């Protein structure tokens, strides 16, 4: 289960303070010290931890908490609140274009789960929002990637637009949108190429696609298991492409949680969805508040 270590540590830390009828500044100090260590151990970005702890300290030692009838519980509420705010606060929605189709561009490194997530997102849009998406294969460098998307399309009985490996990604994307208009697909989800590392060539290509199709959303797919790396990847993709949201995959694994807790603070872009398994129905809207409750138990 994701966050197991972090969750265990935070829960045992807050247990000590929960039942207290009176909370001293010393209690808060000890609690925040342990919360700080737990977060660092979970691979949360150092600066993010520092700012979070100072906010928790300030609120937890405020008059309102100290003078309340259940200060212990109030302190826990502050921690939960701040964790939720850190992950983005309110859950953000997926865009709907004024003029159909809504175009979503999926970007990310190879192996992050981009193609799988493209299929999952299409499935979710149809099931939950009654939409009719067109999937687009723009990864022309790996024939296997096109095949993978076509297989997903078959499984979902959903159309997949591809022009093989010879056409340019920009042209594929443009043509796909024309087809979507003609066939009344209200969402176009473009699966782009990934590389093992962030490189200029890839970014140039993604910028070209962005400029030519003007997507309503650019979702960066990152593997939550890669911790700090996921945060660095998010930072560079965001600098180059001004992404609109993040999809965190593999949250069903034993990720320590650092990525989930740092990405919003570092990029100021919301985590919109979480991948919870390999199957096509294992994508969930990301709810910061629920996630904070899950972590704190
Ligand atoms: P891409 O190279 O970014 O397109 O990555 P793929 O979509 O091919 O996914 C890489 C691997 O990660 C595949 O084996 C997927 O089944 C797996 N995967 C993707 N998302 C998840 C997830 O949320 N949970 C788990 N456990 N596996 C995932």
UniProtKB/TrEMBL annotation:
GO molecular function: 7S RNA binding; GTP binding; GTPase activity
Localization, UniProt: Cytoplasm
Subcellular location, principal: cytoplasm
Keywords: Cytoplasm, GTP-binding, Hydrolase, Nucleotide-binding, Ribonucleoprotein, RNA-binding, Signal recognition particle
Domain SRP54-type proteins GTP-binding residues, every copy: 270-283
Reaction catalysis annotation: GTP + H2O = GDP + phosphate + H(+)
Enzyme Commission number, as recorded: 3.6.5.4
Annotated GTP binding sites: 108-115, 191-195, 249-252
Domain of life according to the entry: Bacteria
Any one of the GO CC terms: signal recognition particle
Record family assignment: Belongs to the GTP-binding SRP family. SRP54 subfamily.
Function field: Involved in targeting and insertion of nascent membrane proteins into the cytoplasmic membrane. Binds to the hydrophobic signal sequence of the ribosome-nascent chain (RNC) as it emerges from the ribosomes. The SRP-RNC complex is then targeted to the cytoplasmic membrane where it interacts with the SRP receptor FtsY.
Quaternary structure note: Part of the signal recognition particle protein translocation system, which is composed of SRP and FtsY.
UniProt free text on domains: Composed of three domains: the N-terminal N domain, which is responsible for interactions with the ribosome, the central G domain, which binds GTP, and the C-terminal M domain, which binds the RNA and the signal sequence of the RNC.
Protein name: Signal recognition particle protein
Organism: Virgibacillus necropolis
């Amino acid at each position: 289960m994701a966050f197991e270590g972090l969750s265990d540590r935070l829960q045992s830390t807050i247990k000590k303070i929960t039942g207290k009828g009176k909370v001293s500044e010393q209690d808060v100090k000890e609690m925040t010290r342990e919360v700080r260590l737990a977060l660092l151990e979970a691979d949360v970005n150092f600066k993010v931890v520092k700012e979070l702890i100072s906010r928790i300290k300030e609120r937890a030692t405020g008059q309102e908490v100290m003078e309340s009838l259940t200060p212990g519980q109030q302190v826990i509420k502050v921690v939960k609140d701040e964790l939720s705010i850190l992950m983005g606060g309110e859950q953000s929605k997926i865009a709907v274009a004024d003029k159909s189709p809504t175009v979503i561009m999926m970007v990310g490194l190879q192996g992050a789960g981009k193609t799988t997530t493209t299929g999952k997102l299409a499935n979710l849009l149809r099931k939950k929002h009654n939409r009719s998406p067109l999937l687009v294969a723009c990864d022309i460098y790996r024939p296997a990637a096109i095949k993978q998307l076509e297989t997903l399309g078959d499984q979902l009985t959903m159309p997949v637009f591809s022009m093989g490996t010879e056409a340019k990604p920009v042209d594929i994307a443009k043509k796909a949108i024309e087809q979507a208009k003609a066939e009344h697909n209200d969402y176009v989800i473009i699966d782009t190429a990934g590389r093992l590392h962030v490189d200029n060539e890839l970014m140039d290509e993604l910028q070209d696609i962005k400029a030519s199709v003007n997507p309503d959303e650019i979702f960066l797919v990152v593997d939550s298991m890669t911790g700090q790396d996921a945060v660095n990847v998010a930072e560079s993709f965001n600098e180059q492409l001004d992404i609109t949201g993040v999809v965190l995959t593999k949250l069903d694994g034993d990720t320590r949680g650092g990525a989930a807790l740092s990405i919003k603070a570092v990029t100021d872009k919301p985590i919109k969805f979480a991948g919870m398994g390999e199957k096509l129905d294992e994508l969930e809207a990301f709810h910061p508040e629920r996630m904070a409750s899950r972590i704190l138990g």
